[in-house]
Description:
With 307 residues, the chain is an alpha+beta fold. 20% of the residues lie in helices and 34% in strands. It starts with a helix and ends with a strand.
Amino acid sequence: xxxxxxxxxxxxxxxxxxxxxIVYIHEWGAVTFTEEEVFFGxxxxxxxxxxxxxxxxxxxxxxAPVVYFYGAPFSGTFTVSVPEGDFVETxxxxxxxxxxxxxxxxxxxxxxxxxRFTSDPYPRHELLNDLEIDCIPDDILRIWRRPxxxxxxxxxxxxxxxxxxxxxxxxxxxxxxxxxxxxPGDPADDPSNAGPMxxxxxxxxxxxxxxxxxxxxxxxxxxxxxxxxxILETLCSWADGTMKSEEIAAxxxxxxxxxxxxxxxxxxxxxxxxxxxxxxxxxxxTLETEEDLDxxxxxxxxxxxxx
Length: 307
């Protein structure tokens, strides 16, 4: 359980009562850079989809983020558009209106997925999650269902607390950004060149982390597991108060075991925030409500790179 001090520090996003005319859309995920592939998603490589072997991927794969809805109840349509890529996995299956033709792979048109559902901030006690999800482990599902988001009821009457999707991405866009992050050189050599990042190392079976701010001396944590609050507060500062504490915790817990296992390649693992303009170029999300409510979008991602 998270200490109360962390919740007090980071839970700065408070959805209004459901009779207010606003809906909050929160989305989080990560871009993973490895020697051979680039992944965009919510979980570590190999952590979710097993139907496609990573060795068979010819393009970056977006195991894209978890999307939550808060605030006023509504009926609406949520749309994800991928300017340069194709969908690999969607949970639940998207709604396909007759007027929308399927987009063929490698076409010049964007790939689009749409979901129609109702969103209820106060579901009845018996309205439990009943969507069958085979490609995500149960322990990850429990983590993702923890935030106090609205319950979503889809057109087939299935219910879930989030929407999830995977898609391929433009490799050049991701690699160009990674090159710009690493171009100043080793942050340990010159902290003044380092932007915000966490640098994890494995030494004699022990993980340590150095936390860098823009131009600041790094903060060294010999045992990150014993300093979990510091990592959570760092992620919160990167999100700049746009995400709820339960979302920040779910994001970290999804990746924590893989990071602390030290099974990543290279001498170190870097985690760093991604700028919003890059995220918007990767995918676009939109919500249309029948009630014509005001909308507030928050999207937070970090990059993961072994060096």
